[in-house]
Specification:
This is Enterobactin/ferric enterobactin esterase. By secondary structure, this protein is α/β, with parallel strands linked by helices. The protein has 4 domains: 69 residues; 142 residues, no CATH class; 264 residues, Alpha/Beta hydrolase fold, catalytic domain (Rossmann fold); 36 residues. It contains 18 helices and 19 strands.
């Protein structure tokens, strides 16, 4: 049965046991009913009860059944879409201090509905007349991966766009380049101070405002406030392979990452851009600038490709290493780099001055390597880390086409920059949902008269990273980059989230030629598969060499490519 059918049958049984009058007597499992119809039936039944005592009893039965089936309620509808229902009890919402006797308003926040705004039509939950039920429904692509939570805010903050709260940080310019405009557009809002941004962050992320959907079946391991689901009623997030963190498991992260350190081929760290041994305790690790985990083939000499992934911990929480072990041949080393607390102090000592946006959620220490000191980070990888691995016996390739940078958000933009600035070091880049917050690093490559050719670049972004959904500008920015660099853009049904990026990696590596697939329909002897793979890789290498020759030739020509001849390639 569907989730809606389970709910109806469960509620009918609970009502019968409570010895209330029968609910929906002519209901049949053979009839296709929506959860919206259930709410209408429930409203009429609830308001028809002859005492407040019975209504309170029914109310408790309703929410107990919601807990049983879990939220959100997901229904299949035509055209490969789903109808998704979000529910919350008005009785649990805090009272308004602005309007005594009333409740605060409740809004959805997330990568589908939007962060940092309170738009009535897109985010608010309405009340089912005469009941305590707050709800809203949305139509989504069936394959969508969605993150959400609720915020309860005073009425005066209602129906406001993100620019009202964040000012020019949330503003989408006519073009993302140049970064600094000589004459700001007339509709561009004023900048907010660091103190104002801190107040807004507390408004949308603070304990007084945030409401957790306690009935959601799955919450993110690294953000227990956020519910997470796949909009396909037949798929469970639990089946997607992500690590599960039980409620109240405060030791989850220590245990999870300790297991990763233990299973890694080598664990290292860095301090002052020098490689050091991995610290024995958490306190010493916090003093470091980066932690580094290497997963390599047992045969250290068999390494043909090296993949360098920034924000290593988040990618590991996205089940990335397990996915890659099922994808790669035993010839690829994967390096996970993660910033540690000590990197901010190192940056300050070197003269880095942080700006207002650096304090936004998800920024902080990440901005050192990815915004303020990107060149130093690239040099650290090429001149310190990779040579150290060679000293320790790992056959790290010198060929840039065998070196792949992977990054998302800030790291996505920074990876593009490093690939274009240092083509002799890094020949392939996977840039996922690149951020506008450090786009100034790309400005010279976009605006200069003679553009260098981009690296072998796989560019992707989430479908919801746009003003129509999340009120962020990731998708418009990615589209502009795709046009500037004349490359395809891969668009997927998710938002700005690790769970989507991790799943996309296999496709990106296949596109870049790092993963080869032999059709299962062909009957090939196992001993011949390796030969075919080697032959295919040789073919890829020859193509790369020809491409590099062409890049060198193009770079010598003092002719700017005709931008009008470029075509957008989006999928």
């Amino acid at each position: 049965m569907s989730q809606t059918q389970d709910f109806i049958r469960g509620l009918q049984l609970a009502i019968r046991k409570a010895e209330l009058q029968e609910f929906w007597t002519d209901y049949s499992d053979d009839s296709r009913v929506s959860f919206e119809e259930v709410l209408i039936k429930y409203k009429d039944y609830y308001n028809g009860l002859d005492s407040e005592e019975k209504q309170l009893l029914l109310q408790s039965l309703f929410w107990e059944q919601v807990k049983t089936v879990g939220t959100p309620i997901i229904e299949d509808i035509p055209d490969n879409k789903s109808k998704v229902y979000f529910l919350y009890s008005k009785d649990k919402v805090k009272n308004s201090s602005e309007e005594p006797g009333k409740k605060r308003d409740l809004y959805l926040q997330g990568d589908f509905h939007g962060y940092g705004s309170t738009l009535k039509d897109e985010q608010s939950l309405g009340q089912l007349a005469g009941t305590d039920i707050l709800f809203r429904s949305d139509t989504m692509d069936k394959e969508a991966l969605v993150t959400y939570y609720f915020v309860q805010l005073e009425p005066s903050l209602g129906d406001k766009p993100a620019t009202h709260f964040y000012g020019d940080i949330a503003y989408q310019p006519p073009s993302f380049f140049p970064v600094t405009l000589k004459e700001p557009p007339s509709d561009m809002p004023a900048s907010k101070s660091k103190e104002e941004i801190a107040m807004v962050s507390n408004l949308f992320w603070g304990e007084d405002s945030v409401v957790v959907d306690e009935y959601c079946k799955f919450h993110k391991s690294y953000d227990q406030n956020s519910g997470f689901f796949c909009a396909d009623s037949k798929k469970s997030v639990a089946d997607l392979g992500f690590p599960i963190r039980m409620k109240g498991d405060n030791a989850f992260f220590d245990n999870f990452f300790a297991s990763k350190v233990k299973s890694a081929s080598l664990a290292l760290a860095s301090a002052n851009n020098k490689v050091i041994d991995y610290p024995e305790n958490r306190e010493d690790l916090d003093k470091c600038s980066r932690s580094i985990l290497l997963f390599a083939p047992e045969d250290k000499k068999a390494i043909e490709n090296v993949v360098i992934i920034y924000d290593g911990r988040f990618y590991q929480l996205g089940n990335t290493q397990e996915r890659l072990e099922n994808v790669f041949e035993q010839n690829t080393a994967v390096i996970y780099v993660n910033p540690e607390k000590g990197i901010e102090e190192e940056a300050k000592r070197s003269g880095v001055q942080f700006d207002v946006t650096d304090s936004l959620p998800g920024m902080n220490e990440r901005t050192v390597d990815l915004k303020h000191r990107v060149d130093e980070y690239a040099q650290f990888i090429h001149e310190e880390l990779l040579p150290e691995l060679v000293k320790r016996g790992f056959a790290i390739p010198d060929d840039p086409n065998k070196r792949v940078l992977v990054g998302s958000s800030l790291a996505g933009t920074a990876s593009i920059y490093m690939g274009m600035k240092y083509p002799a070091w890094f020949g392939k880049v996977v840039a996922q949902s690149p951020s506008i917050a450090n786009r100034e690093k790309l400005e010279d490559f976009v605006t200069q008269e003679q553009k260098p050719p981009p690296p072998d670049l796989y560019l992707s972004c989430g479908q919801f990273e746009c003003p129509e959904h999340a009120r962020n500008q990731g998708l418009p920015f990615a589209k502009e980059l795709a046009t500037h660099f004349n490359i395809p853009l891969h668009i997927n049904p998710y938002g700005h989230q690790m769970e989507g990026w991790s799943q996309e990696l296999e496709k990106s590596f296949r596109t870049l030629g790092l993963v080869t697939t032999v059709s299962s329909s062909l009957e090939i002897e196992p001993q011949n598969v390796r030969t075919l793979v080697k032959q295919y890789q040789t073919y890829i290498d020859l193509n790369n060499q020809e491409r590099d020759k062409q890049k060198s030739t193009d770079a010598k020509e003092d002719i700017r490519p005709d931008s009008s001849a470029r075509t957008k390639k989006f999928d």
